[in-house]
């Protein structure tokens, strides 16, 4: 592949990836709004919801790990986590392995609410997969497996 082809491919992948990211953000925001302003999700920022989903996927994470995943400073993560703890969405507990460290988890009370938001997001992807068709969706999964393998090595 020439440098020009690689650049064009990289640009296309980046742009399309951005479209997918933006789509997920819109769906997530809509799902949170659907849950209503009177509950834990009312008026959450996209970054706060992203943080909750990252914690949910990993089950337990330190402030430092979460900061690295989000690409922000640990003090910023601490502030966001504190707000989400106050809303009953996350918990902070001392680590069993190292009492100096704090472990962040989704609060037991919020798990069901978050599962409803995830169901809405996944429903959107089911619609996308159905619109693509089984063969194209399978190819997409194969490409994503290869991307995941490359990224896991980094």
Automatic annotation (TrEMBL):
CDD domains noted in UniProt: HTH_ARSR
GO biological process, one term: response to stress
Domain of life (superkingdom): Bacteria
Keyword match Transcription regulation: yes
PROSITE patterns in the cross-refs: HTH_MARR_1, HTH_MARR_2
SMART domains membership: HTH_CRP (SM00419), HTH_MARR (SM00347)
Keywords: DNA-binding, Transcription, Transcription regulation
Single GO MF annotation: DNA binding
Residues of the HTH marR-type domain: 1-149
Family annotation (InterPro entries): ArsR-like_HTH (IPR011991), HTH_CRP (IPR012318), HTH_MarR-typ (IPR000835), MarR/SlyA-like (IPR039422), Tscrpt_reg_MarR-type_CS (IPR023187), WH-like_DNA-bd_sf (IPR036388), WH_DNA-bd_sf (IPR036390)
Pfam families xref list: MarR
Stated name of the protein: HTH marR-type domain-containing protein
Source organism of the structure: Desulfosarcina alkanivorans
